[in-house]
Amino acid sequence: MVHGLAENDSVWDRSIGLLPPAYEVWSARLPWSAEGVQDWGTDGDLAGPLARVLAAVPGGPEIVVAHSMSAAVLLDLVDRESRRGGDALARFGIRGLVLVSPFYRRTAEEFDWDTISHYLNDFHLIMEEGLRVHSGDRLPASLRAAMGERVRDRVGPYGWLRFFELYLRTPQLQTGRITVPCLVLGGEKDFAAPPGESVALAAALPDARALVLPGCGHFPMIEEAERFASETVTFVNSLGTGAPQRGPVPDTALEHRR
């Protein structure tokens, strides 16, 4: 399970407890986490840290669940390796993907100046929404707004550029080469990654199903934890995966959740 930008792996806590006991679950802590490396955005290689945690999972991560910006990092990693003649999915032993609230546009023409203005000038609102969902509306609106701006400032201009560069590259993704089964989950009320983008991404993948959760925003794993877990279980079980490959906990940015 791979968290998105300015989050951490606690984003999965409500859902993990709803998964079957037989599932072995790992979560990653990546440089772009809420407590991550301050200057991660100055490094243009975001795929590298993700590749290292995928490689560190004992036996390989059969299913990767990636949220928000990290879904884009994952697709970018697979695409880049494919263009070099490799197969990242096979290399890491990945048999299925669950892409949660992904950012995706089919054509370059879908990006305009209004798009840039929205994601630049309202970027703090996305950070604020994450705080609201995590806190369960316990934080006063004024405090939440101030904290959202602080998180935005911690991400910084370079971090924002890395996010938006990934987004801008999505029309160039060779999605036809991502042949493993995929579940693309979006939220009906997601103003960060509009639900139409989840539908468009699923349509561009050879073997994918889109599911938009009614009344849900950018964080289905928190806002609709039971539905999120149920749909994930249905997807995982449909793949007929074998027994989990257990092994020692590696010395990486991974946590063996159970």
Structural description of this entry:
Pfam families: Abhydrolase_6. The protein has 258 residues and is of the alpha/beta class. The chain is 44% helix and 11% strand. The protein contains 10 helices and 6 strands; from the N terminus they run αβαβααβαααβαβααβ. It has helices spanning 13-16, 47-56, 69-83, 88-92, 113-121, 123-135, 141-169, 195-204, 220-223, 225-238, and strands spanning 26-28, 63-67, 96-100, 182-187, 208-213, 254-256. Strands 2-3-4-5 form a 4-stranded parallel sheet, sandwiched between helices. Strands 1-6 form a two-stranded antiparallel ribbon. The radius of gyration is 17 Å and the shape is globular. The two termini are 12 Å apart. 39% of the residues are buried. Residues 243-251 have low confidence and may be disordered.
Concise summary:
By secondary structure, the protein is α/β, with parallel strands linked by helices. It has helices at 13-16, 47-56, 69-83, 88-92, 113-121, 123-135, 141-169, 195-204, 220-223, 225-238; strands at 26-28, 63-67, 96-100, 182-187, 208-213, 254-256.
In which range does the helix fraction lie?
40-55%
Mean pLDDT over the residues: 91
| Strand segment tally | 6
Task: Give the helices and strands as they follow along the chain.
Answer: HEHEHHEHHHEHEHHE
Tell me the quaternary state.
single chain
Strand order within the widest beta sheet: 2-3-4-5
Gyration radius from CA atoms, angstroms:
17 Å
Tell the overall outline. Answer: globular
| Strand content bin | 5-15%
Would you identify the regions where 5 or more consecutive residues have pLDDT less than 50?
A: 243-251
> Cα distance, first to last residue?
12 Å
| Secondary structural class | alpha/beta
